[in-house]
Write a sequence for this structure.
């Protein structure tokens, strides 16, 4: 039982890292721009599809990864230039409707280009296999590499936000966008910078998860919902909050799906426990979100920004 718990804890950490990579850019978009972008998950999906295509063209996982990141970044900037910047001054309802429509358009576009059948990406040989952890427990090397890559990205993003001029502007914009604009900062360029980083991080998440999960047109929509939960729990505009909330959500979701039915078997019949466990497990992250908001309406590290 302990080995199973450790295994699911690592799986939850890996899932949380992916959630953080997607949520990091989106929480900055919320915090700085006050912009609701339902199409952010599309960048995660596009990153995975570009990874599948480019790794097949180059015949190399690493070649596909190196090309997929700038390609996703450029794709995000094109969307920002053609669509998003025209929505900054519109109401939240307009933003929701427009970006939801964009999700539908891009999902169909992916089906037209790559087809509706799931795609797969080969795992690099150097990261294949597994290593022993505790006794007979072994864990895939690639999943550990995903955790390490996500942690390295989090550290790099923390350094960028806290120790560079660009990061200073991002933090100032999250605190008081009007004041930053009044001081002569080019808000349009700042918005473009935020979208560039958000697109690259989301694309990176999609690219590195491609060898683990099947690449399909609905993958962006499924992760977007949990990404919003992460942002609400962590606090809008907070990278630190997004990181901690993503790990928390990833672990609660993964461990809850595994151990929920096991715990229910202690007080219920096995069949009923399994059915009830499958029903309750997806609700755990939302119950967690409700509990956090009850005690802290702005999230773990959120604060109300002046507009």
């Amino acid at each position: 039982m302990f080995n199973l718990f450790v295994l699911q804890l690592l799986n939850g950490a890996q899932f949380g890292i992916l959630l953080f990579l997607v949520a990091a850019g989106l929480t900055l978009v919320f915090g700085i721009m006050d912009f609701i972008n339902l199409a952010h998950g599309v960048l995660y999906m596009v990153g995975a599809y570009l990874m599948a295509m480019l790794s097949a063209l180059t015949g190399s996982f690493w070649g596909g990864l190196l090309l997929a990141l700038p390609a996703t970044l450029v794709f995000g900037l094109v969307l920002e230039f053609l669509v998003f910047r025209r929505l900054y001054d519109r109401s939240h309802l307009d933003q929701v409707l427009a970006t939801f429509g964009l999700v539908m358009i891009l999902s169909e576009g992916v089906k037209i280009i790559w087809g509706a059948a799931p795609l797969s990406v080969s795992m690099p040989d150097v990261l294949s296999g597994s290593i022993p952890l505790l006794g007979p427990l072994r864990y895939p090397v690639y999943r550990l590499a995903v955790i390490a890559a996500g942690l390295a990205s989090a550290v790099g993003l923390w350094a960028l936000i806290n120790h560079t001029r660009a990061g200073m502007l991002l933090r100032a914009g999250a605190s008081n966008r009007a004041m930053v604009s009044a001081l002569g900062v080019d808000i349009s360029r700042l918005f473009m910078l935020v979208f560039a980083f958000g697109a690259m991080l989301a694309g990176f998440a999609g690219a590195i998860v491609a060898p683990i999960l099947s690449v399909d047109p609905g993958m962006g929509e499924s992760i977007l919902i949990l990404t919003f939960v992460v942002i609400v729990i962590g606090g809008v505009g907070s990278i630190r909050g997004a990181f901690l909330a993503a790990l928390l959500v990833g672990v609660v979701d993964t461990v809850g799906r595994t151990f929920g039915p096991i715990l229910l078997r202690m007080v219920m019949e096995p069949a009923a426990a399994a059915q009830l466990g499958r029903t309750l497990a997806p609700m755990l992250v939302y119950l967690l979100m409700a509990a956090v908001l009850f005690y802290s309406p702005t999230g773990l590290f959120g604060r109300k920004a002046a507009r």
In short: The longest helix spans residues 2-33. The chain has a mean pLDDT of 84. DSSP finds twelve helices and two strands in the chain.
